[in-house]
Each structure stands twice: as structure tokens, then as C-alpha cells.
Amino acid sequence: MPIVRTKSQKMCADFRPCPPMSHESAAIAIGPSVLGSAAVDQTVLAAATAATSDSVKVNLNINGRKYALDVDPRVSLLDALRERLQLTGSKKGCDHGQCGACTVLVNGRRINSCLTLAVMHEGDEITTIEGLAHGDELHPMQSAFIDHDGFQCGYCTPGQICSAVACVKEGHANSDDEIREWMSGNICRCGAYPNILAAIKDAKNKLHT
Ligand code: FES
Ligand code: FES
């Protein structure tokens, strides 16, 4: 199923990439600037720590490796990947399902990892951008993005490539319009869309020959 976007979302008028914020960094950001007290800082940090006392175990299979984690049940898959496993290829753009920067493959299907909880993926096969290459050999989609300059700043690129791999595999890359429609959940603020389209068409030909 394509990720349905409003026209304004497709035009990425409100897309603002921002760095991920951990509990600790959030507490630091809130403490000194707003509350201005070391004692209050400790309270905020204690609260953040207390939230993890309800952690649950989950076994994740990511890029062919198994990981056993104790996570807060409210932790998104994206935050588990980035902040617990240092798999920072998947990016946090909007953190609420609008930009596609966090796209990963779960059992071969593309999903926004910011919109799903880590604990929901016990036993699932998860592939991130780090898992597409075979050693030093890039996935054909990765090579095609390089060959066609399918990026500028590169922030959206891991999500674009994961989504493009699934788009071709789903059989939704048979025309320019079809690719545009089925890639519409992945926003590129730099507007590299013509090059992304060219890369996907090139990779599709290579994957099917
Ligand atoms: S970070 Fe934007 S859709 Fe997940
Ligand atoms: S957002 Fe910069 S390359 Fe797509």
C-alpha cells in the first residue's frame, strides 16, 4: 500500500529536518534554558530514568544480526535503531510519519520506523540502509543513486533508497508516474526528485537483468 500524502505534504512545505533528541539531551535542553536550576535538572533526569524501569525485553533481527534489548515499551523502532544500536543511517526528519526519512524494511515491506514501536517487532526481519550492501559491494540502488546524483544534502537518502528498493520489488516502478506516486511518501527537501527518478529506473533495469 502506498503511503498517502496530502498535496502540501508532497510539496514538503513544512518539512524541517532536525537532529534526534534523546531523553538525556531533552532533559538538558529543558533544564538550564527554561527552569534554570541544577536541582530541577536532577529531577527531570530522574524522571527520564524512572521511565525506563518499565522496560521490556525484545529480540530484534536487524540486517541478519540478532539483538536482545531491554526497552521502554514506548520507544519507537527508529529511536531503538539510532539511540540503542547506533544504526544511525535511518534518519529522523519529522518523527510523525510525514517525511519518510526513517523508512526501513520489515519483512520486505517498507515502513516509517518513527511510527512503530520497537516491541512490536519481535522476530521480524528488519533491514536498514546499513544492511543493503554486501560487504564493500553496494546494492544496485545505492550505486544508481550515486551514478545519477540522486541526492544533495543526503538527509532523505537512506529512506529514499530503502523505499526505492521496496518500490521496485513490489512491481511499482513501471513508469515515471507510477514511481512518483509510489515514492510520494519520501520527501526530499533539496528537490532531487528528477535524479531520484532516474536512479530508480536505472536500478530497476539492473535488478531485472
Ligand atoms: S521521521 Fe519523518 S516519517 Fe519518520
Ligand atoms: S533532503 Fe537533501 S537530498 Fe533529499
Describe this structure in words.
The chain is α+β, with helices and mostly antiparallel strands. It is built from eight helices and five strands. Strand 3 and strand 4 (109-112) form a beta hairpin. The two termini are 26 Å apart. Mean pLDDT is 82; it is low at 6-51. The structure holds FE2/S2 (inorganic) cluster (2 copies). The site of one FE2/S2 (inorganic) cluster has 11 residues, from loops.
* Uncertain parts: 6-51
Helix proportion of residues, in percent? 25-40%
Q: Mind telling me the C-alpha Rg?
A: 19 Å
Strand content: 5-15%
**Which whole number gives the mean pLDDT?**
82
Q: How are helices and strands ordered from N to C?
A: HHHEEHEEEHHHH
Bound compounds, each kind once, are: FE2/S2 (inorganic) cluster
The side-by-side strand order for the widest beta sheet comes to: 2-1-5-3-4
Total count of domains: 1
Number of helices, where a helix is a run of at least 4 consecutive DSSP H or I residues: 8
What oligomeric state is this?
Answer: single chain
- Major sheet characteristics: 5 strands, mixed
Per the CATH scheme, the topology name is: Ubiquitin-like (UB roll)
Assign the CATH superfamily.
Beta-grasp domain
Strand segment tally: 5
Note the overall shape.
globular
Structural class, by secondary structure, is alpha+beta
How far apart, in Å, are the first and last alpha carbons? 26 Å
From the 3D coordinates, which CATH architecture would you assign?
Roll
